[in-house]
Structures are given as C-alpha cells and as structure tokens.
C-alpha cells in the first residue's frame, strides 16, 4: 500500500515537473510582475522574466526528482544565490522574513490557475487536484528555502557589521615616527582582542614601528582573561620587533591585577598615554621639552 502511494506521489511530482517545463514562459511572464521580482530586478522587465525562468526551472527539476519537501534538493542549489539576492533586497527594503515568505506564497496562485486550466477538460479530475496539492507542497518548500537564505544573509550581514564595528572601535594611531598606539575603550573579549592584535601587528609592519602603546585608560575592568589577551598582544608585538608599552592602568585596576596574582613584571607600564609616548621617544634619543606659549603675557 505504502509503495503504491509512493509511486503515485512520485508520478504526480513528475507530472507537475513536466507541466512547469511546458509552461515555463507563461509562468515567468506572470511572475515578472510580482513584487518579489519586480522590485529586485529593476533594470528591465526582461531581466525579471529571466530570473523567473531560472526559478521555474529549479522548481521543475525538484519536482521531477520527487523531492518536493526537501530544501536541500539539488534543484534549489542552482538558484540559491539568486534567491539570497532577492531576499536581501527585500530585507533592505524593510521586509521581514515572514513578509518575504508571504510574497513567495503569492507566486502559487497564477501557477495554480494555469495548472487547473490544463486539467479542466481531463476525464480524471483527481489528477489535476493531485498536481495542485503537489504544487502547494513545492511552493511551501520554496518559502522555506527563501526564509533560510534570508536568515543566513541577515546573520552574515550582522557578522560583517560587528567586525567593522570592532575595527572602528580599535583604531591604531601613529603618534610619532616609529611609535603607534591603540587607545582601548570598553570591554575586551576574545573577538575584540584578536582584532586589536591583528590591527596592531599590521600597523607595526606598515609604519615600521619600534614602539607600540596599548592604552587601557578606557577599559573599565581587567580580569585574568583580559590580562592574558594583553600579554599575548605584547608577546606578538615583540616577535615583530616592536617594544610594547601598556599605559593607563588606574588604581582600581592595579589592585585587581595584584589581587588576581597576575604577573605583569615583564611588561613596560606607564601611568598615561603621554608618559608612554615620552618613554618611547626617550628610548630613541628624542628629547621633548615644554615651551611657553608664544605671546602669553606675564602676570
């Protein structure tokens, strides 16, 4: 019984696939005016029609394989990039994944109308009903595929934006010839510490810096994990031929470091960024002296 039902379902799916292949042009022409395609492919209507044909071809391939409910069916693989582009464009326009899925569901109606007209003169009307049901399953799977690509595209965008924010939040500043600095503000976690290290090492190479200053004045707390990140960054800078100086250790942080038993004895520390810069310049034989402001009137 189950084998017979499976064979019938497979036959229906293949019949649906054959229908999609036959009516490819008409379906594409109708879909080209749908919001999902019209608002994405704006160069010309022909471009939208071609995009629609690619999706119809994918659905036909999936149907012919009998894998109507499989989001990983090979047929979908050929249009995933296109579907992702469409989903991303609609997401940028402010549509949620659920709303985008609703637009996909609207594609079923014109295809259903064509499908029913194809079977309206058939002796056995059940064949048409079966194909309509198969079409409903297939379009539901297409909705899942597009929702999946929408979520994935959103996650990738968030990851890129997070990386960009990390890079912006950890600028490397050239203070003097051969001296660079990273003023750290906010909490240091593993991801941000990695960005700090990479940015600093790149700056050491680009600027041919002999001294690198890590200023932690804006870091609220230092725990053992943060201290380990700092020490790893210092060690990496030394391997690149630069001496690393840590500045801005406030009294509360100093007490925390001592309480945790963290040994920073091998790291050069200074009270503030100005002191660290003065140390780096002095090590290079550069003497900086304060000069009175020109034109200042004596009291």
Percentage beta strand? 5-15%
Residue-averaged pLDDT: 83
Q: What is the number of E strands?
A: 5
What general outline do the C-alpha atoms trace?
elongated
What is the tally of helical segments? 13
Going by helix content, strand content and strand pairing, the class is alpha/beta
User: Looking across the biggest beta sheet, what order are the strands in?
Assistant: 1-2-3-4-5
Uncertain segments are: none
Helix share, percent = 55-70%
Radius of gyration: 32 Å
- Kindly report how far apart the N and C termini lie: 108 Å
Give a quick account of the main beta sheet: strands, pairing sense, barrel closure: 5 strands, mixed
The secondary-structure element order is HHHHHHHHHEEHEHEHEH
Tell me the layout of helices and strands.
Layout: H1 2-22, H2 24-31, H3 35-38, H4 45-65, H5 74-77, H6 80-92, H7 97-105, H8 108-119, H9 125-169, E1 173-176, E2 179-185, H10 190-207, E3 211-218, H11 224-239, E4 243-247, H12 251-260, E5 268-270, H13 273-283
Parallel strand pairs: 2-3, 3-4, 4-5
Antiparallel strand pairs: 1-2
Helix pairs in contact: 1-4, 1-9, 2-4, 6-9, 7-9, 8-9, 10-11
